[in-house]
Design brief:
330 residues, alpha/beta, 434 Repressor (Amino-terminal Domain), Rossmann fold, globular, six-stranded mixed sheet, 3 domains, 12 strands
Length: 330
């Protein structure tokens, strides 16, 4: 095995040690050309970063894993934003982060493997579906976990749940649109097997019910392009609603793009999204949205996983984000 060090890899690749470290730990935001150049050097010199060896040498590092359950990868603005915030909060506590993208059921065993071999000490899971038998096994086996937006039915002392208060958020979106005295309101929902999608839809419909509003639910799958294509067809059919609630900000952008493509002024429709990720305030027009304090949620995630790793006890194992309506230009 080569005795080459990370400093040598940095010099050979022509990048800083920090950039090499981010590539090794699969951090987002690294240009693909940079990533491939560094990986080529790593492969050529057979460099193997050995966390366990450093731990045995007395330089024990705390490493947490972020596991993203999603077939679509890291294309989601929400995933990118919350991951970046978790990394930031972890670095403030001198904790390293390893990111793993889980696309199949079989790959979920990585959580156990990486904790068992000492690569990470605990895991933060994002994007779980309503049916997760392998994740349930991992919970039962008492691995240290923080899970975002998952059915918080477990009283296990080894798990901490962080939820986006989805049901109440759906109700808040409906109240906002009803206050505008709208008579036709459409809802673009997310993936049917994801808790945020189900709860946001339930809250929205429960609040809308009995108000004499014509309401349609459309399957946008949390995807910008899908929502855009569906809304383009709706516009062509001449059935434009007065209001739209999208279960995430990306679908809201898709709807805005469909309006622009068809020469329709966005001001003709009241549009509200969900998540309040960074893109909602950067996009033009700026998107009215509902969301929790993602910075606080990331902070809670890091604090909770470190508390679990260190053997501490958490009295309440669920954190529900505090909702806020961000009224902007749409």
């Amino acid at each position: 095995m080569s005795l080459i060090k990370i400093d040598d890899i940095a010099k050979l690749a022509g990048y800083s040690k920090a950039t090499v470290s981010k590539v090794i730990n699969n951090y987002p935001g690294i240009p693909e050309s940079t990533r491939q150049k560094i990986l080529k050097v790593i492969k050529k010199y057979e460099f193997e970063p050995n966390i366990q060896a450093r731990n045995l040498a007395g330089k024990k590092e705390k490493v947490i894993g972020i596991f993203i359950f999603d077939k679509g990868g890291l294309g989601s603005y929400f995933f990118q934003y919350i991951i970046a915030l978790i990394i930031e909060k972890a670095e403030e506590k001198d904790v390293k982060v390893l990111i793993s993208l889980i696309k199949t059921e079989k790959q979920k065993v990585r959580i156990k493997q990486l904790i068992d071999n000492g690569t990470v000490q605990g895991a933060i899971v994002i994007g779980a579906t309503l049916n997760e038998p392998e994740l349930e096994n991992i919970i039962q086996d008492e691995y240290k976990l923080v899970i975002f937006d998952y059915k918080a039915e477990s009283n296990s002392k080894n798990v901490f749940f962080i939820n986006s208060n989805n049901y109440e958020g759906g109700k808040l979106a409906a109240k906002y649109l009803l206050e505008k005295n709208l008579k036709t309101i459409y809802h673009f929902t997310g993936q049917e097997n994801k808790l945020p999608s189900v709860q946001r839809k339930e809250g929205f419909l429960d609040e809308i019910d009995g108000n004499g509003v014509i309401c349609k639910v459309l399957k946008g799958e949390f995807q910008l392009d899908i929502a855009k294509n569906i809304f383009n067809q709706i516009i062509k059919n001449g059935e434009i609603p007065e209001g739209i609630f999208c279960a995430n900000d990306e679908m809201a952008i898709g709807c805005l793009e469909a309006l622009a493509d068809n020469g329709i002024n966005y001001k003709n429709i009241k549009l509200i999204g969900f998540d309040n990720n960074q893109i909602s305030s950067l996009y033009r027009p700026r998107i009215t949205t509902i969301g929790c304090n993602l910075d606080k949620m990331a902070e809670k995630a890091v604090e909770a996983i470190l508390e679990l790793i260190e053997g501490g006890s958490i009295k309440k194992n669920v954190y529900n984000g505090e909702l806020k309506l961000y009224e902007r230009e749409t």
